[in-house]
Amino acid sequence: MGVYCNEWTLNAQYTWIRQSTFTNQDAIDPEPLVGMGVWVLNNWFEQLSSLGQIMSATNIDSQWDLGMDFADLTMGYPIYEGRYLSMVPFFGVRGLWIRQQLDVTIDVPSYIEFDLVTSPITSYNTANSWAFGPRTGFDVSWLFKYGLRIEGSAGANLLFTQYSTVQHAEQVASSVDGQLSVRLPNVQTVRPEFDLSLGLGWGTYIKEDAYYIDFSVQYDFLLLWQQNMMRKLVDQAVAGTGATAGDLYLQGLAVRAAFYF
Fold first, then answer.
1. 75-98 confidence digits (pLDDT tens)
2. Structural domain count, the chain
3. What is the DSSP letter of 186?
């Protein structure tokens, strides 16, 4: 949505992202076939095996669910508008809500009376956060013939972020009802973000210049620093100290259509 006044542009934008990523992988048996292949785990599980060793598994199954909501309110003013080139810096605010859930299930092997059996155990990991702060950037467009154009934009944000929920829980292999659980209290910090878009567009007037239609295809890239708080919590629980939380990257193709009247 956009509002124009004396070349100033007021824009409000909402972005809704939901995605799920699945992984299922069996360990490869050794060659020649002597024994069995296993994955040796160095993360996502705190507990040790019955022999006091790092957990191993014949199969790993995981599901990562990500929900993100962006709300932007920005104002822009063109610093250059030529026949072909236009440059519009903007500034404003961004609100961001992120919800992550990662479930990792492993099949733990054991022998009962010389028979191999596996027991599934699951690691449940959750991270929820909200953020708010200033946003700035610029839009650039280069117009060709027949309404075609190359367009791009870049934006940066510095957001006050609160992680309302960061939790890890896992079933205990030796007890059906047992469970390990750790969590971080409310964590408040400042997180930077960066986004970049580049693509092609086409627009034209219709109905004796009464209306304007516009189409564009852009490739978007988004970087959110230090968002993998789930892994940071597990590292702290296992090792007593954790490395910097990993970054979150998003990229993909965006197709847009607009009608102005």
1. 999 988 888 999 999 999 999 999
2. 1
3. -
**Residues in a beta bridge with 196:** 154, 221
CA distance 63 to 181: 19
Alpha-carbon distance of 166 to 240, in angstroms, equals 16
Query: What distances in angstroms separate CA 44 from CA 41, 55, 91, 121, 159, one per listed residue?
Result: 8, 10, 40, 11, 28
CA 91 → CA 75, 119, 132, distances in Å? 6, 54, 14
Residue 119 lies in a domain: no
Amino acid at 175: S
Q: What is the pLDDT of residues 113-137, one digit of tens each?
A: 566 677 888 999 999 999 999 999 9
Q: Quick check: is 25 in a domain?
A: no
CATH code: domain of residue 242: 2.40.160
Domain extent, residue 167, equals 2-20+70-104+124-260
Whether a cis peptide bond, with omega within 30° of 0, leads into 134 is no
Give the Cα separation of 100 and 97 in Å (integer).
10
Query: Could you tell me if residue 175 is inside a domain?
Result: yes
Residue 28, in any domain of the structure: no
